[in-house]
Amino acid sequence: MIQLNDRYFEVFIKEAELQEEVSSLANKINSDYHGKDVLFLAVLNGSFMFASDLVKQINGNCEISFVKVSSYSGTISSGRVDELIGLTSSVENRHVIVLEDIVDSGLTIDKIVSLLKADNPLSVKVCTLLFKPEAFKGKQHPEYIGFSIPNSFVVGYGLDYDEKGRNLKEIYQLKEV
After folding, report:
1. So what's the pLDDT on residue 84?
2. In a domain, 24, yes or no
3. Which domain holds residue 104?
4. Exactly one of 32, 104, 119, 160 is catalytic; which is it?
5. Which stretches in the chain have pLDDT values below 70?
6. Is residue 175 part of a domain?
7. Considering only Cβ atoms within 10 Å of each terminal Cβ, which end of the chain, N or C, has fewer?
8. Which SS3 state, helix, strand or coil, does residue 148 take?
9. Residue 80: what pLDDT?
10. Would you list the DSSP string of 4-36?
């Protein structure tokens, strides 16, 4: 168990399980996009560890770019999406895979996919490490899902609680007392 600020968290997904699932996702993408150039669009800040580990296992030509959006305040989704840093690479006539650390309500992904589709990509797919089916209300269901998890708050491996915990090698779940 660890403490971040005023909350306690317990191990939920161990490092070895994370790496195994990242490899599995990379294998699926390698199979689906064999011989095609892919632009990975990593959503910051949370996806940086996942994106790094995944892209290292991609065969063939690929690029990575970043977008930063915000939809959380503390442990609760704020219900809005604010684009903070926009995409600088052109997506026209490209295969794009959006990399997310976690998809819960789906608002962030819906916003990003909507913006991308306006620029005429060949395809847009979403790859997320974590997916909360109970919380999902979006239109764009992820095509690549690492772990489906309950609707509880998690930190670690890029995910944070008020900017703390991103550096943890494992994913921790909020311990309810």
Report:
1. 40
2. yes
3. 18-28+36-152
4. 104
5. 70-85, 177
6. no
7. C
8. strand
9. 58
10. ETTEEEEEEE-HHHHHHHHHHHHHHHHHHTTT-
